[in-house]
Amino acid sequence: MNNLKLIFFSISVIILISVSPSAVSAENVPAWIKNNALWYGQGDITETEFLNSIKFLIENNILVLENDEPIKRNQLEQIIIPNGNYVVSGGNFYLPLNLEIHPMTTVQWINDDIVLHTVQSQDEYGGIIGLFNSAPLNTGETFEFKFTEEGVYNYYCSLHPWRVGLVTVR
Ligand SMILES: [Cu+2]
């Protein structure tokens, strides 16, 4: 085979082996494709035929080209209600004040303060709505809610209504 073809073949084999080792399982690669690689190396089939076999691997999800960053789902994220959160003029905001997550993330609020707090979902006018609503949480107690839909969710503490926070789902 000529040099160009040899280089191309080598690159193709490297791609097959190294693009996504975790996603390529040898037993999932059909025998005819393994033969294609051999035949292509020997010059028995054309570049197009060999490329088509790689295309087949990709289209059938045998060879998986990984995206930049897969979206993590079914994760747990935490919002801390910090010590001193009840103080009106204090700077002890929710941590974080605006939690940004993807859909299907469960959010857990934990009360690290020395007094009771609640978590109440609010509409855009500040009224309580029945989406997620905790009982009063003692120190160390938690409350969880799983966000399935994109959107901006407001909440506050009904015992300390100056404490408002956001969960942004997108
Ligand atoms: Cu509170």
TrEMBL record:
Highest rank taxon of the organism: Archaea
Blue (type 1) copper domain span: 94-169
Example GO molecular function: copper ion binding
Record keywords: Copper, Metal-binding
InterPro entries: BlueCu_1, Cupredoxin, ET_Amicyanin
PANTHER family membership: BLL1555 PROTEIN
Full protein name: Plastocyanin
Organism phylogeny: Archaea, Nitrososphaerota, Nitrososphaeria, Nitrosopumilales, Nitrosopumilaceae
